[in-house]
User: Fold this.
Amino acid sequence: MKDKLILKGIRGFGYHGVFESERLNGQEFIVDVEIAADFENVNDDLNQTIDYSKIIDLVSNEIASNPVNLIETLAERIAIKILDFENKIKKIIITVHKPSAPVSASVSDIAVSVSKER
Assistant:
C-alpha cells in the first residue's frame, strides 16, 4: 500500500514501567504512528479519510491511563485500539519511545515498534 498517514512525536505523561519509581513519579512517553490506508478516493472529504486528531486523542489517552510494565504492551494496546476504532486502516506501525528509561548507561532513546495488518 503506497498511501500513508504518519504522526510523529505524540507526547504524553504516563506511569508505565517495572520499577516502583516509574509507577510513582511517571515519565514522558513519545509515540509515532504510521498508518497504511487507501486515500485515492477521499475527494477532500474528512468523512472519507482518517481523522488524525481522533487518533492523536486515542494515543494520548492510552499513554496517560492504565499503567503497564512494558512499552511493548503499551504499543500493542495502542495498535489494537486504533485498529478497532478505524476500519479504513490496512496496516499500522506503532513506535513507543521511552527516552528517560532508568538504565545504567546514557542513551538517547529506547523504543519498541509493533506492526499489525488486517
DSSP finds three helices and four strands in the chain. The longest helix spans residues 71-85. The longest strand covers residues 4-14. The CA atoms of residues 22 and 102 lie 8 Å apart.
